[in-house]
Design brief:
Blueprint lengths: L1 H14 L2 H4 L2 E2 L1 H8 L13 H25 L17 H6 L9 E6 L4 E3 L8 E4 L1 H21 L8 H5 L13 E4 L2 H7 L1 H9 L18 H4 L3 H4 L1 E4 L6 H10 L26 E6 L8 H19 L5 E5 L2 H13 L4 E4 L5 H12 L5 E5 H7 L8 E4 L7 H9 L7 E6 L4 H8 L1 H9 L4 E4 L1
Helix pairs in contact: 1-3, 6-9, 18-19
Length: about 450
């Protein structure tokens, strides 16, 4: 998101020598496009009447950073630390505090006496971009290449950087020496396919010369071995299978790879306040291609008949995957079930309507996706029973939803999991319990 890029670029500027730090081209434009009003000024350059307020803001940021560290370590954050009287959790406000637009790309050129922002990509030393910003650039490049072949001539470009680069070419991705995928867990909640698309397009042999001096090009680049000497760094708040697959399939450095992760998790069960019967059910696993079908079949044949026969309302079904959400929604609607749905694409009016119908019992079942909870963190009221269709990637969502269910006097919680969700399960129940759940002879385990 632009707010993350804004903080990262300003952090880079503070690391520059003084001769460069105070000579930044296009800084006002950058603050206008990536920052929020009032957060861009340097406290040292403010008048004395405003400097005290800026220092207080820095102190608040330091406190928030310390609280975020506690949150990352699994420590519970007390409601009293929530700032501004908002009901949004701390981690949500730290992430979405600022410009949340996820479509951007910017080049940075470092010279001896200045730093130039919004520089041409082919002359830039650093490129800061979102996956969506790069994917749209790739799509534009592909379209303009096809148009150029059709017309037999160059195409005009309305993008300043594209015009300077001789069209919307993607050859600037061929000479990356260090590739940093920051906030990979956030990209997982956006669209992970964009990350995969970008990684497929880097470290290829350029299609044009772009004024390069071939005498200065290293031989391994000409031999198509740039990907073997590129250093790729993936940073995430937690490990997940998609990042591991990306590291294995798209990152092949000749020096190998190093994975740094926590060796032990205590889990989120100690943070569950109400006394709720938590039932974990292991779904048999045969192969990757049939796992989704087996999970759906188990829900339709084992879980849903009990819901259908009972008269209980306030049943929240939490679904990590949007594709599973669509599948369940179509299944329940076809069966004429009393169901409401909340996903990341639901309009504000439909969200209010669904939450009200669920709370007042006009809809017995509410389907709720993890991405919707990631972006909005709705406080769902009226929960009497929780069903996790899959283990959430963000472990603290588990304890958060169970604590919300205390308002509706929830009596039970059912979690469906398979062998593929070992990483998520470890973060939710803890490392020791996860091994017992995955390898135990019994497929069902109960925690109270």
């Amino acid at each position: 998101m632009r707010c993350c890029a804004h903080r990262a670029v300003h952090r880079l500027l503070t690391l520059c020598p003084p001769s460069q730090r105070f000579a930044v081209d296009n800084l006002d434009r950058f603050n206008e496009e990536f920052g929020d009003e009032g957060e861009d000024a340097d406290p040292k350059q403010l008048p004395s009447s405003q400097r005290e307020g800026a220092q207080k803001t820095d102190e608040q940021d330091s406190i928030a950073t310390a609280e975020a560290s506690d949150l990352a370590k699994g420590r519970e954050i007390r409601p009293s630390v929530l700032k501004g009287g908002t009901d949004k959790p701390l981690d949500h406000r730290l992430l979405f505090d600022g410009n949340c637009d996820d479509h951007f790309r910017i080049g940075i050129k470092l010279t001896r006496r200045a730093v130039r922002l919004f520089s041409d990509f082919y002359s830039s030393d650093i490129i800061v971009a979102s996956p969506l910003g790069l994917v749209t650039w790739l799509a534009e490049a592909s379209a303009k290449t096809g148009e150029k072949k059709t017309n037999g001539g160059p195409t005009a470009s309305g993008d300043g950087q594209a015009a300077q680069s001789g069209g919307s070419s993607i050859d600037f991705l061929s000479s990356l020496e260090i590739l940093v995928v920051d906030n990979a867990d956030v990209m997982l909640m956006q669209n992970w396919e964009h990350v995969q698309t970008v990684l497929k397009s880097v470290s290829h042999i350029p299609t044009e010369q772009h004024g390069a001096d071939f005498m200065r090009i290293r031989e391994w680049y000409l031999n198509g071995l740039a990907r073997c000497l590129r250093q790729t760094i993936i940073l995430s708040a937690f490990p997940f299978a998609e990042a591991n697959a990306l590291l294995s399939n798209k990152c092949s450095n000749i020096e190998g790879s190093v994975i740094c992760r926590r060796s032990h998790y205590e889990g989120q069960l100690p943070f569950v306040i109400p006394q709720i019967r938590q039932i974990y059910t292991r779904i048999p696993f045969e192969d990757l291609s049939s796992d989704d079908d087996r999970r759906f079949r188990y829900f339709a044949e084992e879980v849903y008949p009990g819901i259908k026969e009972s008269v209980q309302s306030g049943i929240l079904v939490f679904i990590p995957s949007y594709f599973d959400f669509v599948r369940l929604r179509n299944f329940l609607r076809k069966d004429m079930a009393s169901v409401a749905s909340l996903c990341e694409y639901t309009t504000t009016a439909d969200v209010s309507r669904a939450r009200a119908n669920f709370f007042h019992g006009r809809r017995r079942i509410l389907l709720y996706t993890e991405r919707a909870h990631f972006y909005h963190r709705y406080r769902i009221r009226g929960i009497q029973r929780l069903i996790f269709y899959g283990v959430p990637h963000h472990a603290h969502y588990y304890s958060e939803l169970l604590n919300l269910s205390a308002e509706g006097n929830a009596s039970s919680c059912t979690v469906l999991f398979s062998k593929l969700e070992s990483l998520q399960l470890e973060r939710v129940v803890g490392s020791k319990r996860a091994k017992r759940l995955l390898k135990g002879s019994s497929s069902s385990h109960i925690f109270v």
